[in-house]
Request: fold
Amino acid sequence: QAKEKHIDTNLLYVLFTSGSTGIPKGVSIAHKSVIDYTLKICEILEINFKNSLLNQTPFYFSASARDIFSSVKVGATLHIIPNHIFAFPNEIFSYIEQEKITTISWIPSVLTHLCKGNALEKFRLNSLRTIAWVGEIMPTKTLNIWKNHLKKAKFINLYGPTEIAGTCTYHIINRPFKDDELLPIGKACKNTELLVFDENMNYISTKEIGKKGELYIRGTSLSLGYYNDKEKTNKAFIQNPLHDNYLDLLYKTGDIVAYNE
Reply:
């Protein structure tokens, strides 16, 4: 389609989520969701044209959108390293030093793997300014090893399923966490609303500290549904139960959350 004819609700890509249920689902993402996400992530990770990013996420995972589109938007440098090289911590750390990489945004299992043994201690990694992660729970023990090594870097916990084109919450680590503490997923990104409901779809407010419920997400970043699967789409993308005045879709994450103080 000619660029002039494109509209922002058109489909940009379909990404398949993991087949943990047996059958992978194709998540349909629109141009507007990726544009919205790109604007948000450049702000959260403070990415500008001076930055160098090192990509670890294969392009068939939604998290790779963060590296690709943010670099294109601000004119940052994106380094793409073959995934198998991440098995060798020394090679990765040498590369970071040599190319003066400033920003990494990887999955916690990679960050955990890289700090096994003492490879991290052999490198100063002075250029690294921002370290973020997404897609899994970050073991606080891993965070503390990295934090103790890189005293000046900023550490950011990101959260967001494939169904919302990227990240919907973030938490900048702003205090010490004990090794056995859970990291918060943080607050909503700009232009995103988080809603929590109990199993009977009663709304749980931010004042109800510690009360568990399921997380629902609202905003431009919502996917256009599962490709060629109306049934699954209708189960996961539901009308906001707080009103019935107009179409107002929420994505049902399946993740259980609670507000802390």
Notes: The radius of gyration is 19 Å. The first strand starts at residue 11 and ends at 16. Residues 31-44 form the longest helix (14 residues). The chain has one domain: 3-191.
